[in-house]
Each structure stands twice: as structure tokens, then as C-alpha cells.
Task: inverse folding
């Protein structure tokens, strides 16, 4: 499954990987805001920002081609609206949609593939996001693959019993069978959650996750944020002046 | 429909982020208070369940199939506050890990689906979940949750000036209506399956008065949906409203007397008009949020 790829990438040890999660989060947010608010000069700004992202990816030793391709998952959705904009006689708006949505997705991808999700969520907690919500996010991510696998097994079992979707007419019993399958999946998930909680209590869980890394905001992190400010604002400024 | 970054105008996404943040904080606190501590893993695992549930296809006929979206189902089984937290967590994971929906647009997506869609889905169940109309209420909840989210997303895109001609708007509204009916049917089928497995999975709505207020809220929502359906058949009007003057023109008409001279200058620039439109929309949504929250809080407390 391709999400595991992000997990693997995020465990690197490059200069970018070693920066504090808060520094990277702030830099990514600045990137997104600077991109989203670019209007007149969005094409040149986009080129400059693309170059910045590529430079960061090279510094983080991410596989360029694979990362660029992964960010393209936004394009099908965007393409629909871009085509509509084109048809409505707004080619510039269409280009802005494609560029902004792709670059934003790429920026978030770079953040996630240089920061493990638990680190990122821990950083967000320090930045004031409610811990309760972040714990739910972390549990969700952890058990996503467990429950998904269970769903896949159920689907495989149903197919083995020759359940098929290729019916012209609506079949009430098959609809009911699918609902029953989901009901069972729900019940199993519920039981899972109970077992998980018991196991956690047995290991002394006390209402919060702890991570091994030290989460110190060092001077290098401050320099990283400064560099991000200068680069992003500089690229934006040059683009505005030239146009 | 998860809105990616780059689609919404700055005033729209910024305002919706500002709206969603305190609302999610409130929901998180309510969920934390209302549930035992053991529910933290439960909420996460239920979020994973909703993800996984999308792998199970429901045959619709004509060789096509649909899948569960889940906002209403979560509200029926976990309660509205916990459901809001779970849906927010789902949207966050989708935005961060799967690049499905933007990070700046997260506030918009959370408002559309985790807050407004979820509340719209819960309201019918809350009102009629125990009586004779239980099955209809469950179906209606699923239907409204999808339709409300879709209508909000469409109007945010329109407010942001994304080009959507008449035909496109009509087609997408039709598609959303079909998927809303499907969600209602799937939600109802799963609820029946759940109740036959273990009736304790489903929360009992506690209704102690407030039925009138809830009915008014539901009626308002119906009016809004019908209004949008009507407007989408005459989209030139809505297009003009959203693109040129925005809801600001409404505010202008309402505030005409005290602000007669002032606002012509203020609303002169396009950016301010758009910002005004965004803010007016957000104020409306926020008001609706607070109203629903109060309603739920009072009934829980009573």
C-alpha cells in the first residue's frame, strides 16, 4: 500500500529531516499562504516556489520522480474544474487552479515525507491544537491499516462466494448483505478498540503519548524558519516587481 | 467532496478556518467530557472503520456501486460531539497523508462535513429517532448530511469565483442528490444490521422538549436546500449574486438605513466585497453552529 512509502521516506536523517516539526510546520503554512494569496503574478511565483520545493526535496534526498508523481493525486479533481474554467473562457483561472492545488499538495507531501506523523502531531500539540483531537488522529492512523485489512479480507471472502456487482437490476438482498458485512466490521472494530484500551492500560498508559526524541527548538530550526521567510517573501517580491 | 488548496478565495478559506477552529475545540471538549477515557481508542478505531468501510461496495444496479460516507452513522452511534471529532480526524489524515483535500481548506472541509453535515444528519434522528418515524428519520439524516455538505462546498466554490456555468451546476447538484439518497439508504441498512447485532451500538436520543426549535432548524435547512436547488436552475441569478456582489449586497439592503453613505465607499473594492460576502456567510454558519450547539447542550442538560 502506498501510504507506507510516506512512512519510510519520513524516517530519513537529512538536514531537513532533523529540523524540528514545529519549524517545518510553520514553514509549510507560510508556503501555502504565500501561494494562495498570489494573484497577478501567480505563474512566476509558482515557478519560483516549485524550484524551492525541488531544492528542499533534493536536500532531504527524497526520490524526486516518485514524490512529484504522488502529489499528482490532486490533479484528477482539479482537472474537472480546470476544464470547466477553460470552457467558460477563463484560461488563467484554469492554470491558477492546477498550479496552486498541485504545489500545495506537493508542499504538504514534502512536510509529511520529512516528518514522521507522530512527531508532526506532537509539534502541533505544542502549538496549541487540542491533544484529544491529536490522539484520535494518531489512533486513526495507527489502526487504519489494521481495519482496512480486515475489510479487504471480508471483500475477498464475499468475492470467493461469487458475490458480484454486475447486475443490471437493483438487488435488495445483496444490498442487505453489504450492510451486514459493514455491521460486522463495525462490531469487530468496537471490540478491537476495547482490547486496545485494555492493553494500553496494562502497559501503564496515562492519557498521553510520549515520544523518544527531545523536541528542542534549536538555533538551526530558527535559521530554517528565517530562511523560509526570506526565500518565500523574496520569490514573491521579485515576481510582483517583474510583472 | 474534499476541496483542495488553491480553489477557495483567501477571505473564504481564512474565515472558515477561523470558524472551524473554535467549533472543533468545543466539540473536542464536549466529547472528552461526555465519554469515559476508554473512548479515545474507540474514536480513533471508528475513524479507521469509516476509512475501511469505503472498500465495501453497495450494489446500486446498472453495474454501478456506492459506498458509505459515514457522517450520520457516526453521529447515531457515538453521539454528535464525538462524531464531529472523529470526522475532523478523518479529514485531517486525508489532507495530510493522502493529499485528499487541502490544509488551508481544512477549515472549509471540516465546516462542511464534520460540523454542518454531521449536525444536519443528526437532527432528524434527534427529533424522531424514538418514535414511529424512526426509519424515515435515519434515512433523512443520511440524505441531509451528504446534501448539506455538498451544497455548502458548492456555494463556497461559487463565492470564491470558481467558474461553474448553469449546466455544470445543475448536473453536479443532481449527482449530489443521487449520492445523498444512496447515503440515506446505506445508513438505514447498516443501522438495521447494527441493531440486530447489538442494540447498544446505537445511542438513544434523549428528547426532553426543544422539539419546536429543532423543527424550525430542520425547516430552515430544507428551505436552504430547496432554495439552492431552485437557484441552480436559475444560476444566472446566483452567479451574479456570488460573483459580482456576493452576500454583501444582502447585507447592504439590510443595513441600508444606518450605513447609507458609508458602505458605498467601503464596498467599492472587489476584494472587500468578496471579504464581506465571505464574512457574512461565515457569520450565518457560525450562528447556525451556536444555535445547534445550544440546542444540543440544553437537551443534554435537561
Result:
Amino acid at each position: 500500500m502506498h501510504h507506507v512509502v510516506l512512512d519510510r521516506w519520513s524516517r530519513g536523517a537529512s538536514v531537513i529531516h532533523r529540523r524540528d516539526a514545529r519549524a517545518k510546520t510553520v514553514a509549510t503554512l507560510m508556503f501555502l499562504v504565500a501561494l494562495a494569496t498570489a494573484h497577478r503574478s501567480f505563474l512566476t511565483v509558482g515557478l519560483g516556489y516549485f524550484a524551492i520545493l525541488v531544492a528542499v526535496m533534493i536536500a532531504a534526498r527524497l526520490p524526486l520522480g516518485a514524490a512529484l508523481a504522488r502529489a499528482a493525486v490532486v490533479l484528477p479533481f482539479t482537472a474537472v474544474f480546470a476544464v470547466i474554467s477553460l470552457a467558460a473562457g477563463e484560461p488563467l483561472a484554469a492554470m491558477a487552479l492546477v498550479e496552486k492545488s498541485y504545489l500545495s499538495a506537493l508542499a504538504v507531501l514534502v512536510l509529511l515525507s520529512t516528518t514522521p506523523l507522530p512527531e508532526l502531531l506532537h509539534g502541533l500539540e505544542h502549538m496549541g491544537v487540542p491533544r484529544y483531537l491529536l490522539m484520535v488522529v494518531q489512533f486513526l492512523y495507527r489502526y487504519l491499516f489494521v481495519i482496512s485489512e480486515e475489510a479487504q479480507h471480508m471483500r475477498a471472502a464475499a468475492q470467493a462466494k461469487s458475490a458480484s456487482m454486475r447486475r443490471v437490476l437493483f438487488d435488495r438482498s445483496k444490498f442487505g448483505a453489504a450492510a451486514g458485512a459493514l455491521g460486522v466490521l463495525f462490531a469487530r472494530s468496537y471490540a478491537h478498540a476495547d482490547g486496545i484500551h485494555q492493553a494500553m492500560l496494562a502497559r501503564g498508559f496515562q492519557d498521553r503519548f510520549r515520544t523518544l526524541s527531545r523536541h528542542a527548538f534549536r538555533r538551526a530550526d530558527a535559521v530554517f524558519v528565517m530562511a523560509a521567510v526570506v526565500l518565500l517573501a523574496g520569490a514573491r517580491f521579485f515576481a510582483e516587481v517583474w510583472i | 467532496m474534499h476541496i483542495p488548496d488553491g480553489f477557495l478565495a483567501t477571505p473564504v478559506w481564512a474565515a472558515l478556518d477561523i470558524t472551524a477552529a473554535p467549533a472543533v475545540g468545543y466539540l473536542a471538549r464536549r466529547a472528552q467530557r461526555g465519554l469515559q477515557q476508554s473512548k479515545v481508542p474507540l474514536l480513533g478505531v471508528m475513524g479507521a472503520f469509516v476509512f475501511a468501510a469505503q472498500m465495501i461496495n453497495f450494489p446500486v444496479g446498472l453495474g454501478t456501486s456506492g459506498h458509505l460516507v459515514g457522517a450520520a452513522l457516526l453521529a447515531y452511534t457515538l453521539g454528535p460531539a464525538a462524531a464531529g471529532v472523529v470526522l475532523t480526524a478523518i479529514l485531517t489524515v486525508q489532507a495530510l497523508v493522502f493529499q485528499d483535500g487541502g490544509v488551508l481548506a481544512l477549515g472549509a472541509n471540516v465546516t462542511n462535513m464534520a460540523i454542518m453535515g454531521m449536525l444536519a444528519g443528526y437532527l432528524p434522528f434527534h427529533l424522531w429517532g424514538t418514535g414511529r418515524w424512526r426509519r424515515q428519520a435515519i434515512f433523512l439524516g443520511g440524505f441531509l448530511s451528504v446534501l448539506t455538505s455538498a451544497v455548502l462546498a458548492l456555494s463556497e466554490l461559487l463565492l470564491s469565483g470558481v467558474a461553474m456555468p448553469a449546466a455544470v451546476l445543475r448536473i453536479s447538484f443532481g449527482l449530489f442528490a443521487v449520492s445523498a439518497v444512496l447515503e440515506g439508504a446505506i445508513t438505514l441498512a447498516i443501522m438495521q444490521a447494527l441493531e440486530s447485532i447489538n442494540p447498544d451500538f446505537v445511542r438513544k436520543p434523549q428528547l426532553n422538549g426543544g422539539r419546536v426549535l429543532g423543527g424550525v432548524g430542520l425547516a430552515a435547512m430544507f428551505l436552504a436546500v430547496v432554495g439552492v436547488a431552485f437557484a441552480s436552475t436559475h444560476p444566472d441569478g446566483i452567479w451574479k449574486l456570488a460573483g459580482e456582489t456576493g452576500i454583501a449586497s444582502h447585507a447592504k439592503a439590510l443595513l441600508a438605513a444606518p450605513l447609507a453613505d458609508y458602505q458605498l465607499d467601503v464596498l467599492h473594492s472587489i476584494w472587500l466585497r468578496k471579504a464581506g460576502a465571505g464574512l457574512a456567510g461565515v457569520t450565518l454558519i457560525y450562528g447556525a453552529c451556536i444555535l445547534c450547539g445550544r440546542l444540543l447542550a440544553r437537551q443534554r442538560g435537561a
Notes: The longest strand of chain B covers residues 58-61. Chain B touches chain A through 75 residues (CB under 8 Å).
